[in-house]
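Q&A log
Question type: sequence-to-structure
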Amino acid sequence: MQFQSPTLLTADIKISPDYQNKYLFLEQKILTLVLPLLDGPHTITSELVKVGLLNNFGNPSIMASCSVWYDFDSVNKRLTLCADELVSEKSTYITTFLNGVSNPHYQYAHSINSYASHENLLWNPNTPLTPGLAEELQSLTQRVNKELLERAIDMNLTVVQLAPPPPLPAELYKQLCPVYHNDRFVEFYDESKSYGAEYTVGNLHSIYEGKATFAADFKYANVIGSTADPKHGVSSWIELWRTTYKVANPTNCSSYHFAGTPGGGEIKPEFNCRGHFVGGHVIEGENASVMPERSDDVFIIPICTAHNNTNKAYMMPVHDNRAIMLKNYFKSYKVAYTI
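Response status: OK
Response body:
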């Protein structure tokens, strides 16, 4: 049955907290965010609502709205959002401002030190006059991201959350940096080698797209030839996954005891997971494939060595649907950033 793409994603969000002191009166307001699921990138801004009053300077009303960037791919039923930790112009934010004053405050999820116009001397929620308010607004912005993620999962969409790599020890980070020769990918950084001037060493940020949560019916298969990546299948990639999701170890293979036959054949009931866990390089679909350079569709997810060595079967997120998405995998153009 062909997937029928939903047309809207809706989520009820809290845009303001209950907060009162001698300088300020805010009340909790909940509104509905509506994301039209049309292909391509979009930015939507909620309706503008009154959330409180400033108890000075004529008691002006405090207004608020929420803005969300997203990208939708109906073919792969994939929704891309921003993670809390992403520092970007795309990041989700709540806008507050005094009615009649043009200079707003933008509260992002990644920090309480979000942008406030220095020209606006009347409104800034991150001052000693409003202790804890910036933290509450930051928490609400993070909750918006969480609500959107949960709603998308409920709709059985695969969700990618754009994010930087997690903090890593320097030694591990170096192992995950791509190396290029004459602008073409060669390998990942090997400290035992000496790279000449014709080599460029990129950084992990250049290939790390973010976190991915697979839909329940998401099918994935191995990347053929990813063993050219010397870190494939060894500790570096699985350690990156562990650090991204802040877990000690995967408890089971993500496709635990499941292997499907491509092309609509019967599921293989005899398949049993075995061996140790690796950070498997996988692609969406039933068929293992060699990915073209510049591919943006490679994921890292824990799989057992039995699955890692099986290219004639596909997998599904039976046990764990959390993955990492790589961008520009084996990209072949000159990179701008080096370690």
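Response note: Residues 230-234, 332-339 have pLDDT under 50 and may be disordered.
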